[in-house]
Design a protein that fits this description.
single chain, 9-stranded mixed sheet, 9 strands, 42% helix
């Protein structure tokens, strides 16, 4: 029996505790102008909340649902790779949406530049139409270690599937679902850059993703601390394991910037926002310190964590 050719895209989607958001994401995939794709849903829910939705959309596009125990988003994405057949990969968040022409635009960029390894789109809040998740640049440019945080977020990443074999999987000690709640994407991007891969950012390619930090409530503060822990660990890992002194410079720069924000908003009597910056500072410091303790106990093994599940 003749094997069907691989699709252009494999969309690997980890999900946990969301159903309406996944329905909107599936609808946005259905509305894309390019349908040469497959969807691999890594379902970490213990209940059957997505049964009906998956049954419906399995009739619309190729959909494979894989049930796993919740361990973390990085583990879920890595796990999904073994089922992917697409020439190009993307890892949408389960609460984002693709704009209608996004996949065709991404495919066209790779076709026009055979040397391109990774391509990054911009995330936009659908209500305000402003950049969300991070402060994205409005200018198309090559991705470098200096502009990682204005050009890249993991769910906006498109890449050739063979790049994963060369760069290695996402670090499962980083990301949502672990005690170091972010920076798995930045870690992967930096490792790709160290290997000399060609990365490009184009703000004309757009995902929709709501901006989460609005009220600076308890949830936002906890997220700032958790994400900060990820940045602390990332910084020490790339300084000690990858021998990149720029990681220390980046850590100090981000801490100083957060301290300035904390003081500015304290003077303005905007205490919730000032506290948000404080939690980021504390989280980064704790993440750096805990990562240093790991390194003292385990040596180089503390950083050989890609492809190994990490418990929260």
């Amino acid at each position: 029996m003749k094997e069907t050719p691989p699709p252009c895209f494999s969309l690997i989607i980890p999900t946990l505790h969301r159903d309406a958001e996944v329905a909107r994401l599936f609808q946005s995939i259905r509305q894309n102008t390019l349908q040469d794709l497959e969807v691999i849903l890594i379902d970490q829910n213990e209940d059957a909340r997505l049964d009906d939705l998956c049954d419906t959309y399995a009739k619309v596009f190729p959909l494979q649902r894989v049930k796993i125990q919740p361990v973390g988003v990085s583990h879920a994405r890595n796990h999904g790779l073994q089922f992917a057949r697409g020439r190009l990969l993307n890892f949408p968040d389960d609460d984002c949406e693709l704009t209608p022409g996004l996949l065709q635009q991404a495919a066209d960029r790779f076709a026009a530049d055979p040397g391109l390894d990774l391509l990054f789109a911009r995330s936009v809040d659908p209500q305000s139409l402003q950049s969300s998740v991070t402060r994205f640049s409005t200018r198309a440019q090559a991705v470098t270690p200096r502009n990682v945080y204005s050009t890249t977020v993991e769910f906006t990443m498109f890449l050739k599937r063979e790049i994963f074999a060369q760069v290695g999987p996402l670090d499962e000690r980083l990301g949502v679902g672990t005690t170091y709640g972010a920076e798995e994407g930045a870690d992967f991007v930096l490792r790709a850059l160290y290997l000399g891969k060609k990365l490009h950012y184009d703000p004309a390619l757009v995902f929709h993703h709501a901006q989460k930090t609005e009220g600076y409530d308890a949830s936002a503060l906890a997220r700032a601390y958790s994400y900060g822990r990820g940045f602390g660990r990332l910084s020490l890992k790339h300084l000690v394991h990858h021998h990149q002194p720029g990681a220390a410079v980046r850590f100090v720069h981000f801490q100083c910037r957060a301290a300035a924000g904390m003081l500015l908003h304290a003077v303005r009597r905007d205490l919730p926002r000032s506290r948000f910056y404080l939690e980021s500072i504390l989280g980064r410091t704790a993440g750096l310190w805990n990562a240093w303790q790991d390194f003292r106990r385990q040596g180089a093994e503390a950083w050989a964590l890609e492809g190994k599940a990490a418990s929260p």
